[in-house]
Design goal:
Number of helices: 6
CATH architecture: 4-Layer Sandwich
Helix content: 10-25%
CATH superfamily: Clavaminate synthase-like
Distance between the termini: 31 Å
CATH topology: Double-stranded beta-helix
Number of domains: 1
Length: 287
């Protein structure tokens, strides 16, 4: 695994208060024990209608298992958690099931295999169809949905150190721009949904401890003057930012991302790494 920078924390069973003080080496949060797999976090309460309350931030019930708190706290604090060589003998679906409820998006099951493809071999509505093996720009998944899936799980089947997942903390973007500017910035999907262009906010904030940040320069467009200003400031902020780099290189390497907070992308894929296979699942709720 190639990661820059990184932080390593150990999980002991049972967890003691002394176990909750990781050694700081940077800002990548890495958890290393199998015990951290079980029922990691709870999230995404049921929304009633498009104007319903936003789901709660990621939390966990410590009564479920004493081993959950370090993952939950790091996910809440950093917006993502990296689990190196996590249960490599288990299927991605089984790993996701041990953590919570997977969301089925599109045709097929909940597991999507991501493989590098030339533009000509992929639909034009996908990043592969637009960018091929070149770098994927930073974005949040399904940003054109009113309520995108809360969490994204990426799991390595066949990986390479030379290909990285890139991460930017959206909380820092919000802090640098001002949440009021982003909350006023109206955007819309690039295509109509049931004949209309639904209006969305770049940042939907209802309470200080919860919010939904969306960003995708391909699939959403400004829908107002305030939207144009917000999008431009967002671009400028990203241009000044340095992403964290995480390589899913070994079988079982698992990355959990808060899709309402973190932006992610992919580095370019060299020809020697064309056999890369990553499995993706969306997580909505933990029961």
């Amino acid at each position: 695994m190639t990661a820059s920078p990184c932080l390593t924390a150990s999980l002991l069973s049972p967890v003691r208060s002394s176990d909750l003080s990781p050694v700081r080496k940077g800002c990548l949060y890495v958890l290393t024990r199998r015990a951290c797999a079980r029922r990691v976090f709870s999230c995404y309460h049921e929304c009633r209608g498009s104007n319903g309350p936003l789901p709660e931030v990621a939390t966990c019930d410590r009564s479920m298992s004493p081993n959950l708190h370090p993952i939950c706290s790091q996910l809440h604090r950093a917006g993502y958690v990296f689990l190196p060589s996590h249960l490599p003998g288990e299927s991605s679906e089984a790993v996701a099931r041990s953590m919570g409820a997977a969301v089925c998006v599109g045709k097929g099951g909940s597991v999507h295999q991501l493989k590098p493809k030339p533009e000509s071999d992929a639909p034009s509505t996908t990043y592969s169809g637009i960018y091929g093996s070149n770098i994927f720009p930073l974005h949040t998944d399904l940003a054109h949905w009113r309520f995108p899936p809360r969490f994204l799980l990426l799991r390595c089947v066949a990986g390479y150190d030379a290909v990285a997942t890139l991460l930017i903390d959206g909380a820092q973007v919000i802090e640098n721009i001002d949440h009021v500017v982003l909350s006023r910035a109206l955007v819309r999907p690039r295509r109509r949904v049931e004949g209309i262009f639904p209006l969305l906010r770049l940042y939907d904030r209802q309470q200080p401890d919860r919010g939904l940040l969306r960003w995708d320069e391909v699939f959403i467009r400004p829908a107002s003057r305030a939207g144009e200003i917000g999008v431009q400031k967002f671009r400028e902020c990203l241009a000044r930012s340095s992403p964290i780099s995480v390589s899913l290189a070994k079988q079982g390497d698992t990355l959990i991302i808060d899709n309402w907070r973190m932006l992610h992308g992919r580095s370019s894929v060299p020809p020697a790494c064309s056999a890369r296979v990553i499995e993706r699942l969306y997580l909505e709720k933990v029961s």
